[in-house]
Design goal:
The protein has 163 residues and is of the alpha/beta class. 43% of the residues lie in helices and 20% in strands. α2 (54-65) crosses α3 and α3 packs parallel to α4.
Length: 163
């Protein structure tokens, strides 16, 4: 169902297992299409908007982390108005404060992109960066599939960031 939380997020729950955190409805739709093209199903439609605050980004992750269907999260942000470093800080804070364990593929393009990548790298968190949109979509779909298969046989899976 459609839910407009107190954080003013456009969040619509769907049936899939890949959580999406995207800015802009157009990019959100394209991201969902790419997930489907790669054999996955989005768990939600979530547009964090053009001027999302750190708190809104954090609220988005908490929503997804608390959804048992979500096996992996795809963060796809194009920073125009929305600065990539602000998003990166929101992601890092959310993961640290809300103890987010869901693996995440993160793609940040645009304004303050390099600063954002540096923040993510220095955070030492399990955030898997990927610049290429197709590869990012394929990666998050495969991760969700691996986790789903592991869950079926009561096995836990942890992803490391490739060196």
């Amino acid at each position: 169902g459609f839910c407009r939380s107190k954080h003013d997020l456009n969040y619509i729950g769907l049936d899939g297992n890949i959580g999406c955190v995207v800015n802009g409805a157009g990019l959100a739709m394209a991201t969902m299409d790419l997930i489907k093209l790669n054999g996955g199903e989005p768990a939600n439609f979530l547009d964090v908007g053009g001027g999302a605050t750190q708190e809104q980004v954090q609220a988005a992750f908490i929503l997804l982390n608390n959804d048992p269907k979500v096996k992996a999260i795809f963060v796809n942000i194009f920073g125009g108005i929305m600065r990539c470093d602000i998003v990166a800080l929101g992601v890092i804070k959310a993961v640290q404060q809300a103890n987010i364990v869901t693996p995440m593929v993160i793609r940040l393009k645009g304004t303050y992109e390099e600063e954002a990548k540096q923040l993510i790298e220095e955070s030492n968190l399990r955030l898997i960066p990927e610049d290429n949109l197709d590869r990012a979509a394929r990666k998050v779909v495969r991760m969700a599939q691996i986790i789903s298969m592991a869950n079926e046989v009561d096995v836990n899976v942890k992803f490391g960031i490739p060196l």
